[in-house]
Amino acid sequence: MKIPASLERLVAALARLPGIGEKTATRLAFYILREPEEYAATLAESVLGARTRIALCPQCHHITEEGLCTVCRDTTRDDSTVCVIEGIPDLLALEATGHYRGLYHVLHGSLAPLKGVGPEDLMLDTLVQRMGNGHLQEIIAATSVGVEGEATALYLKRLAQPFEVKVTRIAQGIPMGGDLEYMDQVTLARALEGRREL
């Protein structure tokens, strides 16, 4: 049985979301149809509002609605230490531990030569600028523990050498292939506390 074209388009749009298959997308679409029309309007407005208002912080590449993000604007944080991470979910996971009070730098990916992702595809230019200002003393490489994360951490060490910035690596309390955003807070806190120099 053929479903209406507008419903088909909605299911196709929902199925593009990560982790959402066609069955789940269909279930979500029918849920949206059952709800009052105001819900659909609020959902659409929320998606469009987030898409138009949210930008990347020009310093660390975290998300923000106004210039620098809340972390970069926080004058109580240690601005001599920068934790380099692959994505925003990693930043949120580390912040939830309450153990780190330095700044961040979001790469929006990791080195993956086999997938065609090189240094030019990551947000490294502003990190180099931050190292060049002479104030930065330590970079914490908090990339994933897989091959790509390790390659990224080693690249960060090479990048920091001319600036004489110490590069440390988070401790190996996170399982191989694990993503920071899925780790519990205790594991993340221990990983930060047990970091080592590369």
Structure in words:
The chain is of the alpha/beta class and 198 residues long. It folds into 2 domains: 49 residues, Helicase, Ruva Protein, domain 3, CATH 1.10.8; 135 residues, Dna Topoisomerase Vi A Subunit, Chain: A, domain 2, CATH 3.40.1360. It is built from 8 helices and 7 strands; from the N terminus they run H-H-H-E-E-H-E-H-E-H-E-H-E-H-E. The strands form 2 sheets. The chain has a 5-stranded mixed sheet with strand order 4-3-5-6-7. The protein is elongated. The relative contact order is 0.11.
* Biggest sheet record: 5 strands, mixed
End-to-end gap: 60 Å
For the largest beta sheet, what order do the strands appear in spatially?
4-3-5-6-7
Mean pLDDT: 91
Question: How many alpha or pi helices?
Answer: 8
The fold-level CATH name of the largest domain is Dna Topoisomerase Vi A Subunit, Chain: A, domain 2
The proportion of strand residues reads: 5-15%
Uncertain parts: none
> Can you write the helix and strand succession as a string?
HHHEEHEHEHEHEHE
Number of strands: 7
Q: Give helix % range.
A: 40-55%
Rounded radius of gyration (Å) = 20 Å
- Based on secondary structure, the structural category is alpha/beta
Total of domains:
2
CATH architecture of the largest domain: 3-Layer(aba) Sandwich
* CATH first level of the largest domain: Alpha Beta
Shape: elongated
